[in-house]
Amino acid sequence: MNSPTAPGTLTRPSQNRPGLSLLSFNMQVGVGTKRYREYVTRGWRHVLPSQQVRDNLDRIGELLVGHDIIGLQEIDAGSRRSQYRNQIEHLAEAAGFEYWRVQVNRDLGRVAQHGLGLISRYTPFAVSEHKLPGRLPGRGALIARFGTPENNLAVVITHLALGAGSRARQLAAICDLVAQDRHVVIMGDTNCTASALIADPALAASGLRVYDRPLPTFPSWRPRRGIDHILTSPSLEIDEARVVDSVLSDHLPVHMRIGLPNTLATALNASHAET
């Protein structure tokens, strides 16, 4: 078993240690807000198609290249505003990935198919979709397990509520869902800072680590708050963590490279070779 490291600790990458490159990004359905007033002046792009959004999706596709597992929030799975195109399928094809999955959490018919997206170089052996508790509906968690049932990596994609009470219940629900998994990654827009996550009792009890060095992601044009995070279990070493300076949404993406135990890496590679 790998020795746990303190929250936020960076370890020197080993040339002999296998790893994964992760990316978490609230992509704002490709709208690409660059200043506060655009929430009003360009808000129509959230309901109607535009060439700007199509061009922005192409740039997001370029951003994904080189990563292994990508978690995306605020995606559209195919409605009028995306010209009935599944944005995750489009991005996966553009960036050369074979596997993708979507969880629609707010089905507004032709107006919006709003949800979460997973894109991966590995094909999971199990995927599940979960509704999360809260005052308002529409929050969920998409969980993919990679490797083998005996030795797997559980990856959770989520977008948590704005309210602290709902957020706490949602974090508790997620922790319960992965309580039996040894190797866990949670990535998403948590709508709160690292200090708030560290203080959460369910996360503290779970043993999952919060990367607590400053990673400001919002707003993208003048980032001041770190509300997008990648959490890891102690078995996964954090080799690198940084914000990607690419203004393609009102959030900035978060990149993390993690080191894997050799047994987990072997299971991942074996499952990858079989697909």
TrEMBL record:
What GO molecular functions are on record for this protein?
Answer: catalytic activity
Residue intervals of the Endonuclease/exonuclease/phosphatase domain:
23-251
The GO cellular component terms are: membrane
Q: Which Gene3D superfamilies match?
A: Endonuclease/exonuclease/phosphatase
A Pfam family matched in the record: Exo_endo_phos
Q: Which GO terms describe its biological process?
A: GPI anchor biosynthetic process
- InterPro entries in the cross-refs: Endo/exonu/phosph_ase_sf, Endo/exonuclease/phosphatase, GPI-anchor_lipid_remodeler
SUPFAM superfamilies attached here? DNase I-like
In its UniProt entry, what is this protein called? Secreted protein
